[in-house]
Design brief:
The protein is mainly beta. 5% of the residues lie in helices and 62% in strands. A 15-stranded mixed sheet has the order 8-7-6-5-4-3-2-1-15-14-13-12-11-10-9, with helices on one face. This is Glycolipid-binding domain-containing protein.
Length: 204
Amino acid sequence: MPRGRYSLHDPHDHTPLADEHFHCAPGPSGWRYVSQLTTPTGDHRGSVDLALDELGRPIRLELHAASWQVRGAALDGVTWVRTDPAGTEATEGTVRAHAFTGTSPAFLVATARLLRLTPSASATRVRLVAFTDPVLAPRTVDQSWALVNSEAHATDNGPLTVDEYQVTALDTGERHTVHLAGDVVLAAPGVELEDLETPPSAFA
């Protein structure tokens, strides 16, 4: 069960945003990721709880940020309920999309798991519902993912395969690179892996 800490920052001006203390693990039904977020000063900022089925589809998502809450799952596309800080109003949404995304590194692992790309495959288009900080506002985004390289590196715990993805935002054409090892993000825009207590889990 990988356990560690990511630091999150603004990918444009590198302003520190949060630390994300996480643990994740594959299980008999898929994969689960749980994290707590703190501000740079150590205050509680939110949480992420994401569970995928064996095909990489989100069977449960729960996000908390700034007293806002989102609960969602794959159902007729993806469906979610967003609740305001007072808990008096809940807004439901459904979009014909493949999965969810957001600032948490969990969503990068989840998208890669859903697409199951190979280095020889062409880029794959995916539609995602992004929940944007700080109020978890939903926004539908279209991306293109391609696995451009997969390379094994020797470690004390045996070979570690690192996958390099090129991700393109189809509305702006902006491209960035994501490096994953199993279910851990090694590097991505706005994400730094600061601490990892146990090796990444390898998906079957």
